Amino acid sequence: MSRRTAQRDAIRAAFEAAGRPLKPDEVLALAQDAVPGLGAATVYRNLRRLTDDGWLRAVNLPGEATQLYERADLAHHHHFHCETCDRVYDVHVCPGDLSHLAPAGFRVAAHELVLYGSCAACAAE
Amino acid sequence: MSRRTAQRDAIRAAFEAAGRPLKPDEVLALAQDAVPGLGAATVYRNLRRLTDDGWLRAVNLPGEATQLYERADLAHHHHFHCETCDRVYDVHVCPGDLSHLAPAGFRVAAHELVLYGSCAACAAE
DNA sequence: ACTTGAATGAGAATAGATTATCATTATCAT
DNA sequence: ATGATAATGATAATCTATTCTCATTCAAGT
Fold this sequence. Notes:
homodimer; alpha+beta; Dna Ligase, domain 1; two-stranded antiparallel sheet; 5 strands; DNA-binding
């Protein structure tokens, strides 16, 4: 059976507080505020488990070697990748139906849109 | 000084014939038709060199661990990733200016759009 | 044709993210 | 409170893409 742990609680809390997709090392840093001794293996274990449980979802972004995660209950949205601080933010708008963009004969099932630039914090500097 | 080699010619020819972004192992397979003994190291060396020379450009796609390349002289466009055969195709249309999609204060410098689904060949089956 | 060193091919080495191992800790049904 | 075992933490191991090493080959200026 499953047992509740302070480590997993802290990892969940990190996502709830961040409100944006997180990399494993970001999760580690954030969750270590609540659980100082937290180890990287535990973060990876729980990222996978929470994904299997349907609480998290893997986010695939261009050019990212590391796998990002976000809460699975979010509605369809896109992402903004800040080229300065390397953080990823949610963009809760969508250009809409893009199936007409594909060549004839191609069947479009989904799409991913990523904006690049500077986030508000980085653009202000 | 630079020397012309059959290997590099074959790699260039692979891109010209394919007309779509290629992974290193695809380049290797295609170029080996012209140069049977071609090694993987030579492919990687030339992908980097041709990129440095401005003939190729790296393509970053979501969820791709491997680095794709395409000819650098292509105009702005997007990509279609076939989930069946895993090939990537060019999509020569663009939804246009997307800067309004970003949150206030965010500065959009570029965007990447990827369509997912089945390419014509795979959808027909 | 000769010579120089750019380029290659094979395999070892590297790099980075993720996963496995295993002794230890701690949850929770009893 | 106790015991079974789920979960953890530290570290080793793995995995895969890419780069390095180095002896050998070959392009091209002479």
